[in-house]
User: What shape does this take?
Amino acid sequence: MTPPVTPAELTDPITAQLDQLSAQLAQAGPQQAAQILLGVLDTETGILGRLAALVDTGARITRHHAHSGAFPGEMWLALGRTANTLHDLALDLDEHHEVFVQLAQRSSGAAPAPVAGQSGALVARGRHR
Assistant: This one.
């Protein structure tokens, strides 16, 4: 029988691969960046979607443990808020899924064509912290 896998044996390689993926993204051209981001941002199968599901599972199990007194209730509430925020962010980014698909499928020699909904100027939006 195989010994059980420890959490560190699961998380350590994942974090190392995320570091490698981040480094590759930092050096990527537009098409490769879009391909990487497709795999990261997909709400169902991408890293962000799976991370949101993992944090949601953490919120549910923490809730269970908070009810038994093993964890403070604040932990459960914080994880629940985080899970909700990740889910909302994933939905916001999902609105741009087709743009990433178009960019990822563009041949590298093709001249950049305007992507639907894309303006000429970069517009910064979002919350400032």
About this structure: The mean pLDDT is 86.
